[in-house]
Fold these 3 entries.
Entry 1:
Amino acid sequence: MSIRVRRATEADLPALVELLQVLFAIEADFALDPERQRRGLAAMLVDTERSVVLVADGDGATVGMATGQLIISTAEGGAACLVEDLVVAADWRRHGIGGWLLDQVAAWAAARGATRLQLVADRENQAALRFYDRRGWRRTQLVALHHGI
């Protein structure tokens, strides 16, 4: 098995949208809307200073992806990175791909001055929560909220 992690290009959008459909099918708070997901990914591909979209390729196919976006954290007094998406195709899980993707997002963020990664995960997605626990992520007392405008 040969895995390569690289920055995504516009040509990757169809495969990335498919991976997001896998992720959003797990996460109850998000609706599957391929056009919205494509539009969001395309915007991140354009804004390469504040966002990164990474792809994991394996055996000629896109098998995983991760995205990160810089934010300004008043708690940190500077940049932090929001890991917006991390998903690995079911047949490719438990091979270290998710960890490699997270490591690359962390390296990208650190190179831009970020001192913290943060993310939200579905509380029912026990496999994902165990993955983050194994990688040393700490659960916080914060509750994620959102409001449409």
Entry 2:
Amino acid sequence: MPLSFPVTVLLNAASGGAGPDEATIQTRFLAAGIEAEIVVLQSGQDPGDAARLALDRAQIVVAAGGDGTVSGVAGALAGTSRVLGVLPVGTLNHFAKDLKIPLDLEGAVATIAGGRVASVDVGQVHDRVFVNNASIGVYPSIVETREELRRAGHGKWPAMLLAMVRMLRSYRGVLVRMTVDGKEAQWRTPFVFVGNNAYTVEGLRLGSRRAVDGGRLFAYLAPRIHAYQLPLLAIRALLGLSAVSEDFEIVSAADLRVDAPHHRDIALALDGELTRMTTPLDFRTWAGALRVLVPPV
């Protein structure tokens, strides 16, 4: 890809705490031979809105932030000829890790300058795109409780820990009805986790994906587990103790419907960002819809 293509970097300065500033990113791109436009997102600004504004002037739109920033920008670029670059300066950076994009600024910029483009899948729920996963159940409830505690004056991490203790102790699960290929099943489960392609559920690669271009969604439920048992399940999965996959119901499909009969609308974590949506939730895969700059093979 010619480096003369216009590049716009959307920098979410709030992602991950103390990340690189505008001048540092600009200097690194210039060192790689790229004159990039740097746009600093304002507090509360939607990365997707900023990306849509950039489509008319940039062939490459770079998301500089965490998974939420990447997801918002990807939602604007999916299905277009524009290409996503990633500067993973957030906290977890799952999407970058699964695509083997370097987590250091120099390596990530070098990946963008290298110009290798891959087409990857995204998931959709209603009109929202996600690059990693979407979930309902205990995790969104923990996030909602955390935000209530923060508004009451607790710090970010103490609020998160207290919210986890409260919800894992008291959460009774959510009744869900899932429809795939015209067939319906019903469970009560602590969570429904819908991944954009398959996630590893055991061993040291727990929570990662081997590929993001398989054209499938994978839904994970744990109807035989109570919420308070989830920390132990996570430890067993990480250490590879026993067949953890037997604790899950795993459904693979190109599209699926998840209904929660007792909820007209429900909290949903979408690539780590909390939102609410009307049920039923209609999920589908959008195979190969997103063009992304990735490292050389």
Entry 3:
Amino acid sequence: MKRLAYRSLVFLAFAAILIPASVAARDIAAIVSVDWLERNLSNPKLIVMDVRKVEEYREGHIPGAVNAYYGTWVTGKGYHTEVPREDDLFEAMGGIGIRNDSIVVVVGRMDVCQTQAECARVLCTLKYGGFDNVSMLDGGYEQWVRENKAVSTEIVKPKKSVYKAALRKEMLADKAYVVSRLGKAAFVDVREPALFTGKTKQVYEARAGHIPGAVNLPVSEVFTRSGTFKSRNELEAIAVKAVGSDRSREIVTYCDAGKCCPTWAFVLRDVLGYRNVRAYVGSFEEWSNEPGLPVSR
């Protein structure tokens, strides 16, 4: 009996090492369904965070949802987007009522690629801010309406709180880090194939192509035509083909200007369990504008 108890303790300790802290601390799935959200609307710890534009929110939203427009959660000049400064981020989180014991569901438009990316970008920003219990609504507001759920036009004023936590700086990669990991980490370019191959480029990219050694996993591969997430099995098959099945492998995602790369970072880390995933916020905008950095086509 003592030997069995000892083996159990060893197993639990080993499991605790294997399970990432962000996964172990979760009280909510990474992606929740419309039915789940409807059943849990009365939970006093739940915050439904609508990241659509204010005018869209006013036209109709999930009952009890607070409006926290996407622009609140990004900063930067021109096309480039970065996470807010620590104090600004914590103030914004507290401003919509987030507390350390809250449960947050991010809701947005999921009918086009750009707004799909906004939802994942906000979710990853909250996680960067040290907050674990945050999820995305599968299919977003459109799916809520398609399933004939209740809609409200009442403007909800959030109950402000004070939020503070340790930033998860390991979730992000800067240019120097990316340079140091060339040829070592797996780089995932989430842009569409024409941009990845260099057939075309964005106006703010000095050179066309991609970071050497990167694989192409477009954001569009994550979602179905209706804007819901593909099944876990489908997402896993896509990911394994690109970066392998080793959940400890170091992965860096990037896009054009920092907005879309968190989508695959979220799927790889929160849905599929890859434990060492970073998003390069400067992305190809920054990379292509540095003459000394290599670009492949």
